[in-house]
Amino acid sequence: MKRYTKLTLAIVLSSVLFTGCISSKDDQNRKIDNNIKDNESVLKTVYENDNKYNEIDSNLDSLEVPGNLDKEDDFEENEIKEIDLQEIKPNEVGQIMVLMYHGLGNEERAYVRTRENFKEDLQLLYEKGYRLISLKDYINNDIDTEAGKTPVVLTFDDGNITDFNIKINEKGEKIIDPNCVIGILEEFNKKYPDFGLEATFSIFGQNPFRQKNLIDYKLKYIIDKGMDIGNHTYSHNNLSSLSEDDIQRTLAKNVEFIQGYLPDYEVNILALPYGIRPKNEEKRKYLFSGSFDGVEYKNIGALAVGWKPEYASIHKKFDYRYIHRVHGSSERFGIRYWLEYFDNHPEKRYISDGDKDIVTLLEAQKEVVDEDKLGDKDLRTYSLEEKSE
Question: What is the fold of 4-382?
Answer without folding.
Answer: TIM Barrel (3.20.20)
